[in-house]
Amino acid sequence: MDCHHLTCKTPLPRPRRGDSTRVHIGPNELVLEAVRGGHSLLWSDGQQARRYALGLDDDGELALELRAPRLPLRLVCRDVITLVPTGRLRGYVQVPLVPTIVWQPTHGSEATLIELPGRDLAAEWDEQDGTVFRCTSSLHVRFPMRSGEPRATVPLWLHNDGPGVCSPAHLPLTIADQDLVELRGSLVVRPRRLQWTGSVWRSEAPQQPAEVRS
Predict the structure, then answer these.
(1) Which of 145, 139, 142 is nearest to 184 (CA)?
(2) Is the pLDDT at 68 greater than 50, yes or no?
(3) Do the beta carbons of residue 103 and residue 62 sit within 8 Å?
(4) Res. 4: pLDDT tops 70
(5) Where are the beta strands (DSSP E) in the chain?
(6) pLDDT confidence tier of residue 18, bands split at 50, 70 and 90
(7) Considering the domain boundaries, does residue 149 fall inside one?
(8) Is 136 part of any domain?
């Protein structure tokens, strides 16, 4: 597997005893080994590692899926964004995805075994919105180059419909698994339009396929 090419789902063939299956996603590495009495799964991001013991049967297959975060996102842009009244801005941001180990039995429905969220997703509590994930991203003026990181690219359109200058501390985003599209070796989310009313952001998710421009 090309470590810079992202797909929504990657099969994880179970190795024979003494062998291993390796998958790379950017700097992250997953190693599945057949050991005495079961399977061992090692996940490393280059700085820390986690090991899991799996008890599997012969009737099914494992896969690695890149899924959207379950909670709404509060995206903090590394660039200072300023919109004058009626001002518009377009660009691309990137949001973390959650590598997920799933089990697909030959007969039956798929089951989630392990979720491996990265450290770039931080859960926090907000009195108005409840629990959300905080993440950061640069605002790219062109479609970002592939890095292999488990992140989705979001075409973003901002519009200030309020009476004053808008310089947001964060942007609200919500994405779902069905929003993810494989494009240019990356995972892309359908475009998001955010409109500042003067007090809150209103969002609209267009129904047309993801639009990207160089």
Answers:
(1) 145
(2) yes
(3) yes
(4) no
(5) 9-12, 20-25, 28-35, 38-44, 49-54, 60-67, 73-77, 88-96, 98-105, 111-115, 122-126, 130-137, 151-160, 171-173, 180-183, 186-189, 192-196, 201-204
(6) confident
(7) yes
(8) yes
Instruction: Please give the Cα distance from 75 to 92 (Å, whole number).
Output: 12
- The predicted pLDDT at position 81 comes to 96
| Helix or strand holding residue 145 (H, E) | none
* CA 140/CA 166 separation, integer angstroms: 19
On whether residue 131 sits in a domain, the answer given is yes
Which backbone phi and psi does 140 adopt, to 5 degrees? -90, 135
Cα distance between residue 33 and residue 22, in whole Å: 9
Write the pLDDT tens digit of every residue in 153-199. 999 999 999 999 999 999 999 999 999 999 888 999 989 999 999 99
pLDDT for residue 212 is more than 80 = no
**Residue 25: CA count within 13 A, CB half-sphere:** 27
Radius of gyration, CA atoms only, the chain: 20
Q: Is residue 51 part of a domain?
A: no
**Arithmetic mean of pLDDT over the chain:** 89
Domain carrying residue 172: 67-98+118-204
- Tokens standing for residue 25: 């996603």
SS3 of residue 3 by DSSP? coil
Residue appearing with tokens 């991203």: 137
The two tokens of residue 64 are 């690695």
Domain count along the chain: 1
